[in-house]
Write a structure and sequence with these properties.
The chain is α+β, with helices and mostly antiparallel strands. The protein contains 4 helices and 5 strands. The chain has a 5-stranded antiparallel sheet.
Length: 93
């Protein structure tokens, strides 16, 4: 299984992505997308509150997302919540 980590730039902000050759999908860091879209100074807290709200509303979206190791700001590979392209679009809706 070949995976390739990449950093994309959107509005001068980093968005971590990972290509999974076996699945044929891009996985995108949810925290990075939240930061870009909301301009929140605390995207992790924003995502945590949103996950709680989604769970309360009965949405299974956050439960279907996974975690993968991605390069963190400190240069280490750390687990982070990720979503594929379809899940990211659903989250934005």
């Amino acid at each position: 299984m070949e995976k390739k980590n990449e950093i994309k730039l959107f509005k001068e902000k980093k968005v971590r992505t990972l290509w999974d050759e076996q699945q044929g999908k891009w996985y995108i860091s949810v925290i990075d997308v939240i930061e870009v879209l909301t301009e929140s100074p605390r995207p992790r807290k924003y995502w945590s509150a949103l996950k709680t709200k989604l769970k309360t509303e009965g949405s299974e979206l956050s439960q279907n997302m996974g975690q993968l190791k991605m390069l963190a700001e400190d240069g280490k590979m750390r687990m982070t919540d990720v979503a594929d392209t379809e899940q990211i679009f659903r989250l934005i809706q």
